[in-house]
Request: fold
Amino acid sequence: MNSNHIRFWELSSGDEIDRQHLEICEECRRQSEVHRLLLIQLSRLPRIEAPPFFAARVQNLISEARPSLVYYFQRMAAQLAPLLTLLILVTSLLIHSVSNEQSGQPGSGGQAAVVLDESAFPEVSVENMIAMPPDLDEGSNR
Reply:
């Protein structure tokens, strides 16, 4: 591929095209024909006059540019990030202190495994919950 091709996208409407190069280069001949047809089509487009208030309206729209929804989400996230971090820290400290109080030993994590074991609550199962008679006191919302 020849790097000396004519750059049609850089040409103005009155610029001369190198005819000798067009006779040699097939790709530039095709591009020249496309460029010529495009110029013909553009020249046949009707001229549209912008309304007199158009420039002022565009300027007003630009000057009153409002922040996007993404901007508001970013601000909200920036304000909530410290609060969420604090919430996670306090929750983890509370869970740690509760597990230490239950075990009676500081730093013991054995009780957490017992609570998560299925045998710790043998009466709680789907079968037991279905077979359990409904409590009459709960039915007062009827």
